[in-house]
Amino acid sequence: MAETITIIDDRTGKKVTVPLRDGVFPSSALRELDPDLRMYDPAFLSTAACESSITYIDGEAGILRYRGYPIEQLAEKSTYLEVAYLLLNGELPTSSELEKWNYDVIHHTMIHENMRKRFVDGFHYDAHPMGMFVSAVAALGTFYPESKDIFNPGSLEKQILRLIAKVPTLAAMCYRFSSGLPFVSPNNSMSYPENFLNMMFRLGDDHTVDPRLTKAMDLLFMLHADHEQNCGTTAMRVVASSHADPYSAMSAASSALYGPLHGGANEAAINMLTEIGSIDNVEAFVKSVKAGHGKLQGFGHRVYKNYDPRAAIIKKAAYDVFDVTGKNPLLDIALKLEDVALSDDYFISRKLYPNVDFYSGLIYQALGFPIEMFTVLFAIPRTVGWLSHFSELLKDDAQKISRPRQWYTGVDKRDYLAINKRQ
Ligand code: CMC
Questions:
Q1: pTM
Q2: Among all residues, which ones are annotated catalytic?
Q3: What are the distances in angstroms from CA 174 to CA 129, 213, 262, 367, 376?
Q4: For ligand 1, is residue 352 a contact (CB within 6 Å)?
Q5: Distances (CA, A) of 39 to 132, 276, 363, 412
Q6: Confidence category of residue 8, pLDDT binned at 50, 70, 90
Q7: Does the CB atom of residue 256 touch ligand 1 within 6 A?
Q8: Quick one: average pLDDT of 230-259?
Q9: pLDDT value of position 76
């Protein structure tokens, strides 16, 4: 029998019965009862703002799937670019499709010379790479006026390809600028993650990238590719709903990611571990968090109320990286912190577990990335998630321009007071 839900307006006795599908009912039920009814839902805790078939999360069970495929299987068997194809197209590519996709991405990695000379070079010497990235993504769109033509499938496809291909180049450009290093051009003979590491760290002709580190970079890209309706993706969708071009929408999504409660948490987690300084200080630190002095960075999640499956994969991968780079000295502090927190009732009762950002920073640091680059490393792979949602939204007839309502609690009408009469 189909499930339904009945909502009764106790003021009038009027009731409306609507279908309940997967625990979701249409808010049109409220409008039917009374067009002026509003549901107060700050931070959208109970609101499904769209239908989506891209990413599935069961936060209680710690499950994450891209287009139905468990993240653990993809992490073990796939590559970032294959996952990108999957997220965008809904299916894994055949070998010829994958070959073409890889070729196309690798052959769109160049960035217009003016982007570096006139735009990136204009930043202050100590500009934060993520601040540069956010604005550089928007600026990149100005090189492609046709990007505004978002309902032209050929044009949109081209912008998606460009963005996925060019964000590593842009990110490396921002880093090289802030380090005072000469820009390294993309190399078409390298894989996506290898090319990125090369553009980041190349110092001389004999520079090589260890394939185990390339693999770890690719894995981290895969794990960050999408995460359904988080803050950044919601920003992407809200901006896309006004039919802005994908570069502008992505700049907004990157800005949302920049915050310390979102993609900035990996940076905050390393700063926290550095501040703790030694495993002897862990218990006192946890005590101070419980007393209300700050948060455990990289802990807790709006959706996961169990171990974040990405954190579990990253924790394991960290050891493979440390085999090459040597152990990150902060690892022991992180392990002890996790141990202490997960046996403490404060964290258990609130279902606070390590999230993706708790261990990723340790790997980034071991790979040689400065802390300021961490959120940029999140933004590069999330590009494909954002663009998948951008495309999905444009095809969704139920969507209109995003325009939530408010609950006005300000003062009632009053008359303008001349300045000499004000207190
Ligand atoms: N350390 C200590 N206490 C915490 C933490 C934490 N990291 N996270 C939540 N709490 C407490 C919070 O104080 C509250 O306690 P009480 O009920 O006594 O008021 C309770 O747990 C519920 O927290 P909340 O703030 O209502 O949860 P939320 O869903 O609004 O926030 C979060 C989720 C991720 C913003 C939050 O857990 C947090 O700030 N974590 C630290 C930052 C972080 O690691 N962010 C990365 C998220 S994963 C990557 C991403 O999506 O970008």
A1: 0.93
A2: 262, 301, 357
A3: 6, 21, 21, 18, 10
A4: yes
A5: 38, 43, 43, 21
A6: very high
A7: no
A8: 98
A9: 97
pLDDT of 393: 98
C-alpha 45 to ligand 1 mean position (Å): 13
Atom 35 of ligand 1, nearest CA residue? 261
Q: Whose CA is nearest to atom 8 of ligand 1?
A: 300
Give the nearest ligand 1 atom to 355 CA.
Answer: 48
Tell me, what's the pLDDT at 15?
A: 96
Decide whether any atom of ligand 1 lies within 6 Å of the 264 Cβ: no
Q: How confident is the model at residue 265 (pLDDT cuts 50, 70, 90)?
A: confident
Q: Which atom of ligand 1 is nearest to the CA of 299?
A: 7
pLDDT of residue 207: 86
Contact 295 CB / ligand 1 (< 6 Å)? yes
User: Look-up: residue for tokens 């969708």?
Assistant: 237
Ligand 1 neighbour 52 (Cβ under 6 A): no
What separation in Å is there between the alpha carbon of 335 and the centre of ligand 1? 19
Do 117 and 362 touch, CB atoms closer than 8 A?
no
Q: Which CATH class is domain 265-367?
A: mainly alpha
Domain 65-262+371-394 and domain 265-367, same fold? Reply is no
Q: Where are the domains of the chain?
A: 4-58, 65-262+371-394, 265-367
pLDDT of residue 260: 87
Pocket test of ligand 1: the residue of 45, 64, 293, 302 to mutate, having most ligand atoms within 8 Å of its CB, is 302
Give the closest residue (by CA) to ligand 1 atom 39: 261
CATH fold group of domain 65-262+371-394: Citrate Synthase; domain 1 (1.10.580)
Q: Whose CA is nearest to atom 14 of ligand 1?
A: 350
**214 CB-near residues (< 8 Å, 6+ apart):** 191, 193, 194, 197
